[in-house]
Amino acid sequence: MKAIGLTQFGGPEVLKVIDLPEPEPGPGEVRIRVHAVAVNPADITFRSGGRAAQLADRAAPYIPGMDAAGVVDKLGEDSDGRLAVGDRVIAYVIPFGPHGGSYAEKIAVAAASVVPAPPGASFPEASTLLLNATTARLSLDALALPPAATVAVVGGAGAVGGYAIQLAKADGLTVLADAAPSDDKLVRALGADMVAEKRADAAAAIRGQLPDGAPGLIDTAALDALALPAVADGGGLVTLKGWTGPSERGIVIHPVSSFGSATNTALFDRLRSQAQNGILTLRVADVLSAAMAAEAQRRLAAGGVRGRLVLDFSQPL
């Protein structure tokens, strides 16, 4: 089978079409014929060497990718009975796991990491859900704000930020998001109650709307310490790139990673249901041939993408 992988870490140009044996699903696993793969910032980190330590004992090539949508084409032993050959599904994939990532025509993955695709969603649309919505859900759970409290979302026009806005509204929270003027209509359509104009001093912009600061803030833009002034005394700050402080004014920092939830089937089912019911909007920025993975990563790194770029694996590479 064909895959997109790399034999050395580096820029987008290291991504190449490669030949690999078809993976065989082991006990408790399923194999998926991949149709679409969302391109995420985590893929860029993986390609550039940010996960080299986790791959130190494995031989190249390395396959990026954490989201996939496709069709189950083989079941391993001891499957739990939820899935059948021919099912349209979505999967959360760990690229430094035993089978590599999702940039491939076929992948083997734990059955617990796979749920049915939202009915009516195309494969490209469905592929944008799990990684980003899981991160947003875990971020809100970490803050544990009471109903009607205000959460600030930095980067509300992005994929994680957009899901965070929609999930927060579903939780009964009030949402302030920062956005460029060109994205004001978008973040309001996603459900933001207040919009602070995006600028270099994001904290000052948020304080302009919330003089006492936000009780909770989800930092999808990796502001880290620069986000602290926007948080109320004793509030909570979610970081997504591992930053843990130091903090100030009793603010609790919550570094959030979705890797520990890779087999949280109940969470994935809940998110799939919310997408099916229109609570979550599946946003595709563009669909590119899988062979254009390097270009997709360049476009993502350049910024300004709204929704997710998606690689089309439905056609032979």
Using brief descriptors, characterize the structure shown.
317 residues; 7-stranded mixed beta sheet; 8 helices; 6-stranded parallel beta sheet; 15 strands; 2 domains; alpha/beta; Quinone Oxidoreductase, Chain A, domain 1; globular; Rossmann fold
Can you walk me through this structure?
It is a single chain. The chain has 317 residues and is of the alpha/beta class. The protein has 2 domains: 2-129 and 282-312, Medium-chain alcohol dehydrogenases, catalytic domain (Quinone Oxidoreductase, Chain A, domain 1, Alpha-Beta Complex), CATH 3.90.180; 133-259, NAD(P)-binding Rossmann-like Domain (Rossmann fold, 3-Layer(aba) Sandwich), CATH 3.40.50. The protein is built from 8 helices and 15 strands. The protein has helices at residues 41-48, 123-126, 130-143, 159-170, 184-190, 202-209, 265-276, 293-302; strands at residues 2-5, 16-19, 29-38, 67-75, 88-92, 106-110, 114-116, 150-154, 174-179, 194-197, 214-219, 231-239, 252-255, 284-289, 308-312. Strands 3, 4, 5, 6, 7, 14 and 15 form a 7-stranded mixed β-sheet that branches. β8 (150-154), α4 (159-170) and β9 (174-179) form a beta-alpha-beta unit. α3 packs across α4. The model has no long low-confidence stretch (mean pLDDT 97).
Secondary structure: elements and pairs:
Blueprint: E1 2-5, E2 16-19, E3 29-38, H1 41-48, E4 67-75, E5 88-92, E6 106-110, E7 114-116, H2 123-126, H3 130-143, E8 150-154, H4 159-170, E9 174-179, H5 184-190, E10 194-197, H6 202-209, E11 214-219, E12 231-239, E13 252-255, H7 265-276, E14 284-289, H8 293-302, E15 308-312
Helix pairs in contact: 3-4
